[in-house]
Amino acid sequence: MTKMPVTRERELRGVAVYPDIVIGKAHLIDRSKAKILYQCFVNGEDLNREVERFKEAVHTVEDQFVSLRNKVPDKVKDQSFILDSHLMILKDGMLYDSTVKTILEEKINAEWALKKSLEEIRAVFEQIDDEYISNRISDVENVTERLLRTLSGDTGQSLSEIDQRVIIVAHDLSPADTTEMNTAKVMGFITDVGGKTSHTAIMAQALEIPAVVGLESATALVEDGDLLILDGSSGVVVINPDDRAIIHYQEKKLQLQTYKSSIARTSHLPAETPDGHRVAITANIEFLEEVTAAKDYGGEGVGLYRTEFLYLREKGFPDEEDLFEDYREVVEIMNPAPVSIRTLDLGGDKFASEIAISGENNPALGLRAIRFCLKEPEIFKIQLRAILRASLYGKIQLMFPMISGLQELLDAKQILEQVKEELNRDNIEYDTNMEVGIMVEIPSAVAMAEVLARHVDFFSIGTNDLIQYALAIDRVNEHVAYMYRPYHPAILRMIQQVVHAARNAGINVSLCGEMAGDPFSVFILMGLGIDSLSMNARAIPFIKKLIRSISIEEARVDFENVIRLSTANEVLAYISDRMKDIVPEFE
Ligand code: PEP
Ligand code: MG
Question: 582 FRET partner, CA 20 to 30 A, in 35, 44, 448, 496?
Fold first, then answer.
């Protein structure tokens, strides 16, 4: 591709991955797609040779992944499951068997057959309306890319060979590429493609490599040797910066360092206000692998374990033993801190192919979560048995999602009792004091909060769904995203109503939607009387710092002021002003 000459400074914006700033020389890596020049027909003996060529390529790539996995640095051991998942993809029927079958049936070369398998897998992933899961197609693409390179004999430049201090510029990097990086030399990397939830981004965060992804045209605009500023906190990349920009970013880097060390010093302290009010800060997780990070960031437990992802990740539903092992490990790692395990919340924007609830016009209002579990009690009971058995290994709190009213809660509790009786009969022990709570995320549950509170040990407010259902804004529809407002006075009033109901019944109330990790909402939620906040682990240190900087008295006054306001814009303006007082460096 011919490059547009860059003579003057130019700024690009992408997705910030790891918040650090580096200034250095660009090193372009050719990770453009391997070229498949032709489809050719093969016949007779050559057909078997073609299959063998494909199988050999799979062996070679398998050896590469195994050797990379064995070399994974200690600090990213947690993430080595990414390489395991690459190994699984290599042997997955949809890739391996289907490519062999296509070579034999269509009598075509291995490259072309592999490309066809990738297209079929991509079509399946495109049906999935879940950002995390659909982004996993990039893992399949990375594996296919390595296979295609191996088939063509071009293995590309290994990132372990780079021996100068440079910023890598590539069209795309695989998680395996990231693992190979010599972190003593590579200052950071930027790529044209990728998003925040790509495994390459997850690896960069774990390895603490400054990175910006999704820049679209970085490889077209940057020349090898160009000077770059990579700001991994804002997602900005400056090509050939002038002196003014260099000084500006050097100052910003210093501020960021001071700020990070002040946060790191306090992340393991309790979230306690200067006048002694304590808020419990816990983490939301989707997979067992995230528990260690949750602890490292100062999480005082897991406030929401979204168990459905295990059902989406596995081929076929996991059995009781798989579930038990997974829950037991999470609980043991966190012990004695509590783990709130939410029962299956499949449906809505989270589908599993085993469930035949396709074709619903309004999946968010359809057969999802507890409704699905009550309709399929056998599936539900397997999960409840696994949770109860794991409850012996630490402190589990069981949480039912999407409860819309009392009858549904009573039905769910009745099934729980049946499972307990079955365990008693089989002489299997469990924690008989395990707390049972519900997610309050449907407006009807808010209206019934006083009644529901008498039947549970705790509430956890799921604002992600509560906002969607209360404001009638589809949370995954980009056309109405601008109307999805956590600071809408209606939402604040609903949260207040739930907190009052919990107070009157003497039960704990937590909030585990994205709003919990939003610095702008934290002092309002404190003032409102929320007992605990559960969030993405990375948000924990800053939220703790905020709580430690404001008195509960002030937060209560702020809440009283905010609840009198009539529009989301007024609320936001009030909060922005207050944030400037509370953390001046936040601007
Ligand atoms: C919520 O709805 O706020 C919530 C935490 O659950 P999820 O995002 O998994 O629906
Ligand atoms: Mg929800």
Answer: 496
Answer whether 54's CB lies under 8 Å from 100's CB.
yes
Of 63-72, 361-370, 433-442, 487-496, which gets the smallest average pLDDT? 63-72
Catalytic entry in 86, 373, 488, 512: 512
Give the Å distance between the CA of 540 and the centre of ligand 1. Answer: 18
Task: Indicate which atom in ligand 1 lies nearest the CA of residue 534.
Answer: 5
Q: How far is the centre of ligand 1, averaged over its atoms, from the C-alpha of 464 (Å)?
A: 5
Residue type, 407: Q
Catalytic residue chosen out of the listed positions 86, 199, 373, 488 = 199
User: Could you tell me if the CB of 326 is within 6 A of ligand 1?
Assistant: no
The helix or strand, by DSSP H or E, that contains position 304, with its residue range, turns out to be strand 302-306
Residue 400, H or E segment: strand 395-400
- Give the pair of three-digit tokens for residue 513: 């939607």
186, containing H or E segment: strand 186-191
Tell me, in angstroms, the distance from the centre of ligand 1 to residue 514's CA: 8
CA angle 102, 107, 111 (to 5 degrees): 65
Tokens standing for residue 369: 């979560």
**Residues 213-268: pLDDT tens digits?**
889 889 989 999 999 999 988 889 999 999 899 999 999 898 888 877 777 777 88
Q: 514 CB under 6 A from ligand 1?
A: no
What is d(CA 548, CA 265) in angstroms, rounded to the nearest whole number?
12
Three-class SS state of 187: strand
What are the DSSP calls for 343-366, one per residue?
Answer: P---BTTB--TTS--TT-S-GGGS
Alpha-carbon span 201 to 215, nearest angstrom: 13
Contacts by 273-278, CB closer than 8 A, 24 or more apart: 273/526, 273/547, 273/548, 273/550, 273/551, 273/552, 273/555, 274/548, 274/549, 274/550, 274/551, 275/551, 275/552, 275/553, 276/552, 277/526, 277/551, 277/552
